[in-house]
Amino acid sequence: MIQRVAAWAALTAVLLLAATGSAGAQGEGGIAVGAHAPAVIVNDLDGNPVNLAGVIGKKPLVLQWWATWCDLCKELLPRVRAAYDAHRDQVEFFGINVTVNQSPARVRRYLQEHRPPYRTLYDTGGTSTRAYQVPTTSFMVVVDRSGTVVYTGTGGNQDLLPVVARVAAR
Predict the structure, then answer these.
(1) 106-162 pLDDT tens trace
(2) Which partner from 51, 54, 94, 168 sits 20 to 30 angstroms from 42, CA to CA?
(3) Beta strands in the chain (DSSP E)
(4) Residue 145: strand, helix, or coil
(5) Whole-model pTM?
């Protein structure tokens, strides 16, 4: 239990620093490009489990780790929306809320106001955060149809559209 609390405290510190830091660059930390995407189970906002194994290896996938307090995530939202609008039929989009200083009610208010285009997951246990070695909020992972990670990046200025177009076309 103490190790789990310490791990969450460390993650909280990293996420809070990242939320106020610079925009970051592609490939900074996180799961390695070329790795097989972990098939984790993360709950949605209603507490229903969502098994990413149902998508990984079957359809391309875009994952974003975000929080309501993350300015870089807000900056990134138009780019995520553009990729979604262009490829929503070929690619699955998930926004994974990291739950640090979050509540389901706060996340729902944010979703109502900002209307992100992805299906929202609420990672209370940090399962996906650990599996994907998430270094910060605004972390993006794009997975191709075979289940291989083809892109990772952080920050609000990531150019997602060409990457998503590539995995959608394969």
Answers:
(1) 999 999 999 999 999 999 999 999 999 999 999 999 999 999 999 999 999 999 999
(2) 168
(3) 41-43, 49-51, 61-66, 92-97, 119-122, 139-143, 149-153
(4) coil
(5) 0.83
